[in-house]
Design goal:
This protein has a single domain, classed as 3 helical TM bundles of succinate and fumarate reductases (Up-down Bundle), CATH 1.20.1300.10. About 75% of the residues lie in helices and about 0% in strands.
């Protein structure tokens, strides 16, 4: 009778972090991380709307902190998470439904290139008024 391999919980992290990851592994890991981050953002967004129940002045005072350059930069990186998660989701659909398994590495590269271009374009749109102020 064959013996079952026992699950070694102590070495699980070491074993799983030591193997060479390819594009599919990284896409899977990053898709999960961005999904969790977006879920966290959803709760923060709902919390940020809670001062609406206290009136316009309370809401405006609370939201004023979110208009600083620091929060604008965080919002830009939130866009990066949304971009990666959505483009990778489209890639997953193409791989699963359109017989794209043989093209998954190329699709991953295309989604990264498209994502970087869109990320930089959004950065220009978000910070263009600040950029124009620097050169006036």
């Amino acid at each position: 009778m064959a013996e079952f391999k026992k699950f070694d919980q102590r070495n699980w992290v070491k074993t799983n972090l030591s193997y060479k990851k390819d594009t599919g592994s990284w896409a899977w890991i990053l898709h999960r991380i961005t999904g969790i981050a977006l879920l966290g953002y959803l709760f923060m967004h709902i919390y940020s709307l809670s001062p609406l129940s206290q009136g316009k002045e309370a809401f405006d005072t609370f939201i004023a902190a979110y208009t600083t350059p620091f929060f604008m930069a965080l919002e830009w990186f939130l866009f990066a998470f949304v971009l990666f998660h959505s483009l990778n989701g489209v890639r997953i659909v193409l791989v699963d439904w359109a017989d794209g398994a043989k093209y998954h590495k190329a699709l991953y590269r295309y989604s990264i290139v498209i994502g970087v271009v869109m990320f930089l374009a959004m950065g220009y749109v978000m910070f263009s008024h600040e950029i124009h102020k620097l050169f006036k």
